[in-house]
Write a structure and sequence with these properties.
Elements: E1 24-27, H1 31-43, E2 49-52, H2 65-69, E3 90-93, E4 98-102, E5 107-110, E6 115-117, E7 120-123, E8 127-129, E9 142-144, H3 148-158, E10 163-167, H4 171-180, E11 186-191, H5 203-213, E12 218-222, E13 226-231, E14 235-240, E15 245-247, E16 250-253, E17 257-259, H6 262-266, E18 275-277, E19 288-290, E20 295-297, H7 305-319, E21 332-337, E22 340-345
Parallel strand pairs: 1-2, 1-7, 2-3, 7-19, 9-16, 10-11, 10-16, 11-12, 18-20
Antiparallel strand pairs: 4-5, 5-6, 8-17, 13-14, 14-15, 21-22
Helix pairs in contact: 1-7
């Protein structure tokens, strides 16, 4: 059951396997990690695979967390553990954080003190919420929205909040705003760019979406920023860049992601903003791959699910001995934002167009 927290395993041996065929180990139970296991099972049939996850839950669909927060679905409906092939050569280790990698001995160490050898290692460690260094960002009543733990804390807050301030007007911020308004809570969204969903929509499309959102008891303030959160025992207000003060009792940061690179960095792998990989998704150690939101390919970190799934398939194929290369992903978004259909493809801010481009407006 997804509702039940998992109990961490108890270590009883120094090395968890002795003299057996060393497995492919996948660290991370998000979409990229699960796809890697599926593809390895398909392309590297019968080879032992071990999957490690650090959260106290079975795997779940993070994309649907905003729907869970809005009350549209239940926790059972976001469970993705059944997508893992049921086979004797695949072993899952949930609620088992990996705390160290030793590339020389090709072992990982878990928080429980166990060591596991690997033949190849795939890092799908994902990302965490990025929280700007704003005074007051640690006050009670200030939240992030990234995982199931965050969702449960916000669910407990939805019935108590009278005015929620969401910092960040991207997709996650807008979905958070909609979910937090479900009990007639007034919500204000602060976006530092000149319009919402700046990386997906041009100004005209953003205006259309803004009109739809503002009918939902949600106020949008674009071209604005938060300088300070104020409160004593609880957050009480936000001081904006313009000097305006907004009274609020709840603040949610939806200000982007920070790739989880610490495990790789401590192991001596090359890192930038993410874990640096080549066209085969290999890190600076050819026995270790990185995929998904933790990976940096040609200077770019993708914060979307689709590129991570593509990377997982290519990494598994290369690991299985096939010719497979990754040359980047096209940014494309098709979704509903606060009930409004949205489709976006390419660089809408015209930062990466080549010799020619075309615009169409209906």
């Amino acid at each position: 059951m997804l509702m039940s927290q998992l109990t961490p395993p108890i270590a009883n041996t120094l090395f968890a396997e002795e003299k057996e065929l060393h497995p492919v180990i996948v660290i991370g139970t998000g979409p990229a990690g699960l796809r890697a296991v599926q593809e390895l099972d398909r392309q590297y049939s019968g080879y032992p695979i071990k999957l490690f996850g650090n959260e106290p839950w079975t795997p779940y669909n993070r994309v649907k967390l905003s729907s869970l927060l809005a009350g549209d679905i239940t926790e059972e409906e976001i469970d993705t553990s059944t997508s893992i092939p049921s086979a004797s050569h695949i072993t899952t280790h949930y609620n088992t954080p990996v705390i160290a990698i030793d590339p020389t001995s090709k072992t990982i160490q878990t928080q429980t003190g166990e060591y596991f050898h690997y033949h190849k290692l795939i890092l799908a460690t994902g990302s965490r919420a990025y929280v700007p260094n704003i005074p007051g960002n640690a006050l009670p009543g200030v939240f992030t929205f990234r995982d199931l733990n965050d969702t449960q804390r916000l669910l407990a807050r939805t019935t108590k909040s009278r005015h929620t301030l969401v910092i960040g007007g991207g997709l996650l911020g807008l979905e958070t705003a909609k979910a937090m308004s479900r009990f007639n809570t007034h919500v204000t969204v602060i976006e530092h760019n000149r319009h919402i969903m700046f990386n997906q929509l041009d100004e005209n499309a953003a205006d259309v979406l803004s009109s739809s959102i503002e009918q939902e008891n949600i106020t949008l303030l674009s071209g604005e920023g938060v300088q300070q959160l104020v409160g004593t025992s609880f957050v009480e207000s936000a001081v904006l860049r313009s000097g305006k003060t907004i009274t609020c009792d709840t603040v949610v940061f939806a200000t982007g992601i920070a790739p989880n690179i610490e495990l790789a960095q401590a192991a001596g792998l090359a890192v930038g903003r993410g874990i640096k990989v080549n066209h085969s998704l290999q890190t600076s150690d050819e026995s270790i791959y990185a995929i998904g939101e933790c990976a940096e390919h040609e200077g770019k970190v993708y914060g979307l699910v689709a590129p991570g799934l593509e990377q997982a398939s290519i990494a598994a194929s290369h690991l299985a001995g096939n010719v497979a290369f990754y040359h980047g992903s096209t940014s494309a978004t098709r979704l509903k934002v606060v009930g409004c259909p949205v489709f976006s493809m390419g660089d809408v801010q015209e930062r990466e167009f080549g010799p020619a481009h075309a615009s169409y407006t209906d």
